[in-house]
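fyi for ur records
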Amino acid sequence: MARRSKIWSGALVAGALLFTSLGVGGIATTTGAGAPDKEQTVSLSGAAHAGHKMAASTAASGDDQDGDGYIPANPPVTGVTPSTAEPPHRYFHEFQANCYVSHTKPDDPIVYPQQPGKSHDHTFMGNTTTDAGSTTASLDAGSTRCLAPGDRSAYWMPTLYKGNTSVLPVGPQVIYYKAGVTDYTSVRPFPKGLRFVVGSPTQSVSEFRNHKGFVEGWECGDSFFNSDFPTNCPSRPDVQLNLRFQAPSCWDGRYLDTPDHKSHMAYPVVNPGTNNNICPASHPVALPMIEFKMAWPVNGDLSQVRLASGPAWSFHYDFFNAWDDRTLRTMVEHCLVGGLQCDARGYDQNHPEAGAALNARYELP
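which gave:
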């Protein structure tokens, strides 16, 4: 079966949103009616995450000063209406964050902040300092194993084992930043400190397969769309175990985190009138859609392969944004809003006339 991925596109109509004042992290803010209060925010998006249970963390994390699990955005983004516009068709609107594995540790600064050793083992990419005590400030001050020095974000997932031996991805892993809505020109950068969990270690096999982030599932060789590790995996040096999984890309504009680490985010929905993908009214702010494309150097007999969190369908991942604001804004505007298929420098080889967003050192010129 041929490889496939979700592509969102459209044709030209008038009516793109105009945003006026620039807030933290390059986020434009507008005036208007505010988002719901804490209790309403959770209930509004609860249906989008039904069946994906995650224990709410009550320990103060340094960012969550009152320990209630809510981290307000400062400033919040209010008065936004989901865009139904259709910009000129561009087949791609994405860029890559190529990041190496930095370390493994039984920590999770989102679900178990300030509780070292509390979590199952995780494989961390990007920021080299990520641990149970990580905060926005500590990540911002840390170093990174992403090609772009400005990407000090933390990315992590359950460690994969073959028997009792951990198997770590080799080389830079591809983390896509894409437009999840038809109006790719409406996508804004992540606010600094935004964090969320995609999927759940306690989800069932059907919940994993039917999750909105499921793209190709587990694949190896010519076996695709698997909820479990594929049994047909050739023993060849060029064959690896792969997974593609997408994150929600619509934000409520109010919170950088919520107690279940999901309710402030939602997946795009289909607009019945136009059949376009738009953000729901409860989460109207379009952000980049992260897609993990992971590769583990394991093949052949996979009967002894497991995740630290359990079976194959317990896969999930975490994201904690610590990008340099100017670098992320430049990449989003050049590649996503610009309708390009960019590498980690923000260069589209099919459109060389557009130039690169970053220099040869993956930094702003």
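Residues 107 and 131 are 6 Å apart (CA to CA). thats all i got for now
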